[in-house]
């Protein structure tokens, strides 16, 4: 609503009152955009603040208001233009500039590109102004600054659920592949030359804020003979100068640590006080140069550390008491919110079970392996009083194994779940559970009847759902499930099960189920015909094609 | 017909059908939350959207009204490169709808569609802005969005060096 020019000197003239009652308008058929101004005009127009409502606002000249409001943060700017028409009018010329940082993250997800078109878009935005740089930096470091985001990304990548076409994803890949994150031997000298001009230190170069603007860095520590002292000193220099910016650190080491390298590793940790994520990639042996107690004493207190990722860590189940992962778990276990590791890592003699007994704050646990009895029994022994998200991921998709499928295995699975019955909200079965087809034997009934009250979301491989045992025993334990996500079929059997819609009937007895989501590829057979599909307060089926939700079948009564 | 009152940040109330409102993920959640917490199943939900003003909320509801019979999300017709949603989902009505809007309004509409979880509207508005922001130089973006460089000292040079490090071979 436009104001008359005569009212411009009164800053309160056009404010609106939420408290005042007003007419309601009902949205009828919308006007054609070219002919706006008919039925939509029935909508109630905001009324202005009365003199009484506005008297608390100081009466200042408009120019002063403009001066006061010009440095608002984008969020505050939006709040101002959303509440006061006069201020909105006076700030109109600044609107696109002020809102620019707010729309960048949205555009990052919405704009889709193929890699060859992507090259500099993100980085160009970053160079526009300070607000844009802050917004892009925040996008780039999202997953290194939040254990949840990191955990979700690892999950999404393993289930093909990540939206690889989004600009944000493409750009982050670009940054990861680029030099910012990965500092192998040959790049260390380049990095220092680029960012520190080490031969001629200049005051301005000490002011560099964001050489690691994604917050994530990979350092590769290898045994390099005579060259080692030089490389170690260069890495130390980088971490001394820029280590406070690093929030996610990957250590690659593909050989057992030498004495010097291990000392170097310990030294580097002292220069990265803001670490939230440590990922180990490579081998685990630390050699026999130090006693465990000595190592523990020398590790810094990383009070922000929330996640350890040992998913690509070659822990060998040997007697060595120096495996780095186990020692890190010892030191930082009580802080951890999330842990990613392989079954083999847990089996290492020095890791389990005592070192997992103090993960008292763990919320998310991803275990990579498959459903062997010993695997399930391992999990059953864990004390994880706050575990909310349990994920079992199988790197290689086995369907049948000779040693699975008996009653013992089914009950081991049930006992494992019962262990976390009071806290678990999301279960992700990204591995093949035992295709056990019986019902629990009598002495196991009590275990079978324990209800997972808080479990509202289940993600599973398609194949798991077909097991009669899964339907007859497992689903009865989960009466509060609201959403089931069926992961992308791994082979033709799973695809056939999806296409033929036979899975959907399995979920009818879940009273609170609202949605079953499955991947769908456009050239697959249309899934709607013959499916019993409900919508609304019952449940619906959403089919996914790649990363995009594409089809919501019409309700069938 | 079940109705819901949707109230903008500046106090304008819109009475719309719940069926229409539920096309927005945010409004759907709010309606369901209201239903769970209300003793009276006939009570009319009232939802205040404190971050969207009347002019923008009206546009969102108008778009929802026009697209109320569409699938929840438009099909992606071109999955070779992941593009195509917005182009394929954009009708002549959409083009006419967006045509008179200045960039500021479109940006507010993006924020509103994102907040209210209206995917289709988000797609077409982002597509409109995309041409002004991708493949453009820093100066072109500044011109299109009326932005000024506010970098201090050597910040701009630092940013340029940081960017160069990311992309140079």
UniProtKB/TrEMBL annotation, chain A:
Q: Where is the F-box domain?
A: 54-103
State where composition is biased (Basic and acidic residues).
19-31, 40-51
Spans annotated as Disordered: 1-51
Stretches of Polar residues bias are at 1-17
Q: What is this protein called?
A: F-box domain-containing protein
State the species of origin. Orchesella dallaii
TrEMBL record, chain B:
SKP1 component POZ domain mapped to chain residues = 4-69
Residue span, SKP1 component dimerisation domain: 119-166
According to its UniProt record, in which pathway does this protein act?
A: Protein modification; protein ubiquitination
Quote any Pfam family the record assigns.
Skp1
Signal peptide segment: none
Q: Which UniProt keywords apply?
A: Ubl conjugation pathway
Its domain of life reads Eukaryota
* Protein family according to the UniProt entry: Belongs to the SKP1 family.
Identify this protein by name. Answer: S-phase kinase-associated protein 1
- Organism this protein belongs to: Orchesella dallaii
